[in-house]
Protein: Peroxisomal membrane protein PEX16
Amino acid sequence: RRGEGEALARRMDLMTKLESIKFAFRMGILAVNLGREYRRLVTDRDSAADGRVLCARILQDGGVLRPGEYAVPVVEEEERLWKMRYVGRRTGRRLFGSSAGGFETASLCATGHSNIVGPWQSATRQEKPMPFSAIAKLGLLTMGEILHVYRPLFWAQSEQQHSWHQVYGDGARRDSLSLGPARAWLVSLIMDVLSHHLTLAAAKDCRANVSRKRATPVWAGRKWKSDEFGTEIPATTVNELRRRKMRWMLYLLRSPAWDFLVQPMAEATTDGIGRYVPVLGKTVAGYIME
Structure:
């Protein structure tokens, strides 16, 4: 029996090492993308002022980080402004005549690229204080994602400590993260719930710079709804938050919830089905337990 316990403890050691590697890679992804988001907040303060820059870039299932908004580059905006100022045939824009009866074509032709985009560039590149709301949302998003990334590693470390304690008793190695099964279960659940609410708080005020041709599911109160003119949340973010919340059900299959609540109820239910349902009772009971 002790040999089986040592084998289980070694497997838990291996799982902890794998979770540590996954944690390092996920933190690297978050550091790169959240750092990029912060630089965008600093360089594009006008967009940050009305919340269009910061959108939830949360870690998706499998470690893929999908952007949730479309940022307009400066070059494209300059080209758009240049086209808007151009007047001539087949543009739909009128040439207004002067008091002498002639058209002001000379002044229009003399208008250079720098004269058109110069004031716009100077206005957008002025130093303005970054709004606290954008900083706060980025901070909430960072804390929520770090908790989401660290939670599997915390659970693996707790299971590792518990397995070694079962083998060696009080002489097992311990560290500051060593908790009992019940406390580890509760702390892990709190980390998941807190991570979800922090990420949601950062995502629900996001106004993505995307096309409004199709309504996007948004968070309103306690329900997701589609609002063509309201706050927009990318569909990938909505799906990922739903997936994370559904995984809370897995806590019912972990000790101590399984040992003291779910397993006794499941066994009582299957025993009743196997006893009172004729012919197929035991088969159905076994299927339900599985």
Notes: The chain is about 60% helix and 5% strand. The radius of gyration is 29 Å. Strands lie at 217-220, 223-226. The longest helix spans residues 2-43.
